[in-house]
Specification:
Shape: globular
Strand order of the largest sheet: 5-4-6-7-1-8-13-12-11
């Protein structure tokens, strides 16, 4: 049975910051900064939150469906580490504002940056199980960064987390009609253990050990792939995959992981590794460089980037590495083809990224100062749409969903 992603879309907000501006403003060591391989980071406005991001990512997918196909969406999963309630799932809000039918499972998954892959695999098994033939599942990975700007002296890990962290959402329609990405069923190696590399001990703070996080990422990449090799006959890291899409905390970490894999698995020399990185990995980093790490959706941001930037002359196999701190990881694979590119061009991700408002540093800092006003646990609040009039005017009439108010903890949204 064929199964995988029928449609895939990204929403990276309406504002963006050039990370070189940020690096200069924060006095970040330029030699170290270059290793991030970052260009831009998406920045949420006060009227944007994980719900609005998720709806705006999913709406083009849902709107393109016929009434009959829309009625077959029988599962909506939000995959996030940016939940807005200890009990109520954001999937209920997303389901409501997308106007989906009520015969639908609605729930939420949390597992750091692995959550999106957990949601995809859960949806795949729902489809393969055949309990409801022809059913579809909508997976929405939506997250907001929690990096707080600090005046004066800054810890080095916080300084480098700020330019690499972004805000955004990925929506995927999973079905037995995988027009975008056909999963290799059963071709999957997973690996996990307890480690305190990165965590969110409160709703507004991140903590962890960046060196330990890097080591855990590298260990998981190698061992999840080793498990993949055990399950897939004749798998070869260099020959089996035409492209590779990695969870991307920042591009430099991906480059380091790929270099380690090529050294250990293929004993490849530096020049060959660099050429292989440019050919098979770099297509998947292009969107990540312009959005930042959006947690559970980042690996699918890399997949979308791969599809939009790959040479799709025929079927191409993509190896995918997903990682979530704490930790859980998975290496799996699937096939993209010429049709994948056709489907992706319909949603216009590159055009969306180009259309974001470029923030000046004073505008970015102003947004950061107001970021906590609508945080987890806010009981009552009203969004000031005129805080940055230039952005407000730019998004009018775009048809995006935006947060308007919070009343007795209930979030209320309007279409702009």
């Amino acid at each position: 049975m064929r199964v995988g992603i029928e449609a895939l879309n990204i929403y990276a907000g309406t504002a963006v910051l050039d990370v070189e501006l940020l690096a200069k403003a924060r006095n970040i060591d330029s030699s170290r900064f270059e290793n991030l391989l970052m260009r831009q980071k998406s920045v949420a406005l006060p009227c944007e939150d994980p719900v609005s991001f998720g709806v705006n990512a999913a709406k083009p997918i849902v709107d393109a469906l016929s009434d009959a196909d829309r009625s077959r969406i029988e599962m909506v999963i939000t995959c996030t580490e940016s939940g807005l309630d200890f009990s109520k799932s954001m999937s209920t809000y997303i389901h409501h504002y997308l106007g989906l039918g009520r015969n639908c499972r609605l729930f939420e998954l949390k597992n750091a940056c692995y959550s999106g892959t957990a949601g995809l695999q859960m949806a795949v098994n729902f489809i393969l199980g055949g309990a409801s033939p022809g059913a579809k599942a909508l997976i929405v990975c939506t997250d907001m960064s929690r990096v707080t700007t600090v005046e004066g002296e800054r810890m080095i890990e916080a300084a480098f987390a700020e330019p690499s962290s972004g805000d955004g959402a990925v929506a995927m329609l999973v079905s037995d009609n995988p027009k975008v990405f056909q999963l290799d069923v059963g071709a999957s190696g997973y690996y996990g253990y307890e480690v305190m590399d990165t965590c969110r001990p409160t709703s507004q703070h991140e903590a962890g050990d960046p060196d330990l996080s890097l080591l855990s990422y590298l260990q998981c990449c190698e061992n999840s792939y080793r498990e993949y090799e055990k399950r897939v006959a004749d798998a070869d890291y260099q020959a089996t995959f035409d492209y590779l899409a990695f969870h991307t905390p920042f591009g430099g970490m991906v480059k380091g992981a790929h270099r380690a894999m090529m050294r250990k698995r293929k004993q490849a020399p530096p020049a060959e590794i660099e050429q292989d990185f440019s050919r098979r990995v770099m297509p998947g980093l292009q969107y990540c460089q312009r959005v930042g790490n959006i947690m559970g959706g980042t690996v699918f941001l890399a997949l979308a980037s791969t599809i939009d930037n790959a040479r799709l002359n025929g079927p191409q196999r993509v190896g995918i590495f997903a990682y979530g701190s704490g930790c859980c990881s998975e290496f799996y694979s699937g096939v993209i083809a010429a049709q994948s590119g056709v489907e992706q061009r319909k949603v216009g991700i590159a055009k969306h990224l180009e259309g974001r408002y470029p923030l000046a540093m004073d505008e970015y800092d102003k947004l950061a100062a107001h970021r906590n006003e609508f945080r987890f646990g806010t009981r009552d609040a009203l969004v000031d749409a005129a805080m940055l009039p230039a952005i407000d005017q730019r998004i009018r009439g775009k048809g995006y969903l935006m947060l308007k108010r919070i009343k007795n903890f209930h979030r209320q949204y309007d279409w702009c």
